[in-house]
Every structure is written in structure tokens, then in C-alpha cells.
Automatic annotation (TrEMBL):
CDD domains linked: ArgRS_core (cd00671)
InterPro entries in the record: aa-tRNA-synth_I_CS (IPR001412), Arg-tRNA-ligase (IPR001278), Arg-tRNA-synth_N_sf (IPR036695), ArgRS_core (IPR035684), DALR_anticod-bd (IPR008909), Rossmann-like_a/b/a_fold (IPR014729), tRNAsynth_Ia_anticodon-bd (IPR009080)
Gene Ontology CC terms: mitochondrion
Name of the protein in question: Probable arginine--tRNA ligase, mitochondrial
Family: Belongs to the class-I aminoacyl-tRNA synthetase family.
Signal sequence range: none
Amino acid sequence: MACFFRRCVALQLAEVCGLSEDVFIPLISAVPVSQKQSAADLRVSVNSLRQNGAVAADGDLQSKTQALANQRGAVVEEVSAGRGVIHFRLNRPILAQKLLEQLCSEPDGFGVKSELLRHLQGGRTLVEFSSPNIAKKFHAGHLRSTIIGNFIANLKKALGNEVIRVNYLGDWGMQFGLLGAGFERSGSQEKLRTQPLEHLSVCCAAAECDESVRSAAAEFFRRLERGEDQALALWRQFREITVDEYKRIYQRLGVHFDHYSGEAFHQHQTQNVLDELMTRGLLKTTEKGTAVVDLSGAGDLSSYATLVRSDGTSLYITRDVAAALDRKQRFGFDEMIYVTDKSQTVHFRQLFHILLAMGHQWAERCVHVAFGLVQGMSTRRGEVVFLEDVLEEARSRMLNNMRQSSTSKELEEPEQTAERVGISALIVQDFRGPLMSDYKFDWDKVLQAHGDTGVFLQYTHARLCSLLRRHARETYSCCDVSPLVDSRSVSVLQHLLRYDEVLLQSANELQPRHLVNFLLTLSHLVAVAHRELPVKGSSAAVAQARLCLFSAVRSVLANGMRILGITPVEKM
Ligand code: ARG
């Protein structure tokens, strides 16, 4: 286990530096395989030792490094000074033994149960994501929110948190006036049944283009706001149909929600919010007749948020304040994470500011995870309007690619495999860089079989599965993995040593790229190992040790992929 080795090194450091070993645990990290200039496996930076008062002057560092080197034992074989770091080289047979022992006995606990992550565990996290707007275009931003939010929820869950997944639908506002009026003019119950999302968007678009519907739309929305039965019944129908459709599509993506809420629900609570703000003296009426909350800190309204329009209606942010208060009460979360594109950064900053001004200290544990724009996501039908179009396109293109390679002929469910692999490709493409960056979407790049793509991850996983299937009758255990001391095996093992650190970094920054890059590197390393370390034709002892390694890598790969929101395939 990664922490076993970290603990060994920490113990030595504690002995030499005279501090508790727990101080050192988070300071010790695995040396990335790609940056290897030395044969070391673990390292600790001199700066971090200084900051923690473990070493003083340079002379002190030298004598302590020397003391560490003299002290080496069975596990830590060699200690040496590098540039700004101290290096620790582990005994290779023990490295293989301990890592694989843990991976064999508890594959699903590997990494996620590391003591490095303990301080992150046990809380209740609410993640709000996807949140499309009913009858409006589903854009690439909603797809990004869906997969990023799903990743965050999966990661928190894997680390042992209780997770509540909320979808906050855009189900209120003038849009519904247009939709209602449009539907009353040109809608059909028949089409609503057969092509619900398309039909709603057509009705809405038709109304948008038609000047004469404008006043009917305003009237319909007033009827909704007054709570008139007939209008509300239609609204409810639109909403239910949309949610059912989305549920079906989310299922294809492997995403689920614990709660579907929306702006409409919280609309009814906005009055309470306004009353509370008023009582606390936070709501100011302006000359224009709007009501605002001063966010300037200086009381001069140089920065403020509008919560009531001059016609008395509430806004997006008013409903968000109500929603946050309601969620806190209902779910008692420890932290709440909102996932939207970066155009809403100011909105969420204002929201958290208002909550804090109201005296809700927990707003300090509310986070907005922002992401950049995707340009040029289109399908054969043209610009993306519906989420499902993207899935169809990914599936058909992938199926096409698979048909050109020979393997797909043996697949029982090629369509399903193509869809899974296609979705993995979308996810990996999206997660490879910092979330804040914009990127240009390109189907050909996304679906490449080689290079750093989701297809490559799936391909690696499927190849390991096939190898393990072929040798299913050979029993192997991790009792004797001492043959795994060649450089290929060692690289894989050294890389596995990093898994918990990568999870920690992903969780701290709420960025999937660390995990994605870890899995891609793992795949590259294991591809070389697979090519150069044959199982067939090797002596029984060597074959078993290698199978053990490949099986361990397969489980880390699968678990990591699942956290990303990817369903690993066993054949492709
Ligand atoms: N429906 C909104 C949109 O599509 C996103 C909602 C984000 N969440 C929130 N609590 N405001 O832009």
C-alpha cells in the first residue's frame, strides 16, 4: 500500500528530525515516472522540511541526510540528496509485494482509503450540476456541467463522503410564457408524446419569432405567476415530460440524480428571503424602484446585486438564495458545489456574498466550479440542439471506426460498446486540460484509438481483460511477485504508488485532469509492459507474477475510469 511506504519513510524522518511521523506523511510524494532522473521512488522537498521546522541551516540538512542514509533498512534501501529534495529508493521486491498484496486483497480500496485522504472523508457534499433549461437549447455547456458534476460526485463518494446529486432545472421565467402561448397556438399532444423535447423547442422557437404572440406570452406567464390551474397544469406537463426524457438520456451517459429541483419550486420561497433580508436591513430600494443588496462593503452601492425588479418580480439570484437556504435546511450539507460555465462566476460570487451577509457562515463552504466554453461541437445534423444528438453521433462514429478494425465482429452488443467507448472519448477529451480553458471540439481527434484519448483507455482496459480471460484457468495470487523487478514492471509499480496523491490533488482542486493523466500514463506504461513481458511461454512463477501485475493494473484502471464517469468495457 502506498501509505505503508510513506509511513516507513516518515518513521525514518521522525527519528532523525525529532518530530512526529505524522508531520511527514503529507510531505512525502512519489517521484513521477516521467521525471525520473534518479532511481528513487519517493521524495520529500527540502523546502517543506524547512517549513515544518524539520531542518534548519544547510549544514543541518547535510548531516540529517547523512543520518538518514546511514539508517537505511529493509524497506528504504538508499537515501540521497537531489536538487532541493531528498530521495528514497525502496527495496523493489518489497515494493511489488506490498503494493500487489493490497491490490489483490482489496482492489476497490486501493488509493481511496489512503491515510493521505483521511482528512477529506466523512462529510456530506451536495453537488448541483447539469441543470438544463426546459424548452431551451441544450448546449455543450450543459454537457460539460453534466460530466464534470458527475465526476465530482463520484470522486467525493469514492473518498467516503455522503453525496447528494441535485439537478436544478431552469423551469421558470418568461420562457414559459412563450412556451405556453406557443403551445396553445401550434402545439400538439401527439407530438409531445412522440418527440417531446423537439416539439417543445419548436413551439418555443415559433413563439419567439412571432411578434403577435408576445402579449399572449406575457399573459400566459402572469397566469402562471398567479397560480392559475390550467396554465400550471400545462407547465407541469412540460416539466414532467422533459424530466422523463432527460432521465432516459442521463442513463445512457451513466449519470443519475437524487433530486430534480428547479427555479419554479424556489420561486415560492423568494418572498421569505426578501422578508429576511428586509428584517436584517440588507435590502435597499433604489430610485429606479428595484431592491438591491449592497455588496460594496463601504455602503456606497459601488457594487450590488439586484433581487427585485422594478415591476416587483424576482430574479435568478433571488431564487438561488432561496434554493441555497432550502437545501441547507433540508439536506444539512457540509459543503455545496455548483458546476456551471464561467459566465456565471460573478453570479455565484454574489450569491455566496449575500448568504454570508445574512449571517450564514456555511456559505464559506459553497464552491462554484467554473469551466470554459467548447467551440464547434456539431453533428451531422448541424449545430447541437439536443444532448441526445451528441450521443448518437459519438455512437455512430465509434461504431464506424470499430467496424474498420477486425475485432468488433466478435462483439455481442457492438452498439452498446460503441456508445460506451464514444462517451469515454468525449469525457477524456473534456477532462484533459484545466476546466477553465476553452477548447475546440473535433470528432476525429476525440475518437482516435491511439494517443491520449478515452478510446485508448478503453482499449487498454479491454486488452487486459482479454489477457486475463485467456489465462482464467491459471491460478495466480500475489504470494510471490519477486520476479517483478525488471524496469517495465518497476515503472508500473512506481506509477501506482502515486495514485492516492493524484486523487488528493483532484479532490483538492476539483479538477479531473490529474486523474485522467494518471490513467493515460498508466495505460502507456502497461501497454509497454504487456508487449515486453509475455505471460504465455514464461515459467509458471514469472507468468503468475505478471498476471498478478496486469490484474492489479486492470482494477486500478477500471476504478479510476469509473470515478471519471466512464464505464469500462471488457471487449471492443
Ligand atoms: N439553468 C442554468 C443555465 O442553464 C444553470 C443553473 C445553475 N445553477 C444555479 N443554481 N444557478 O444557465
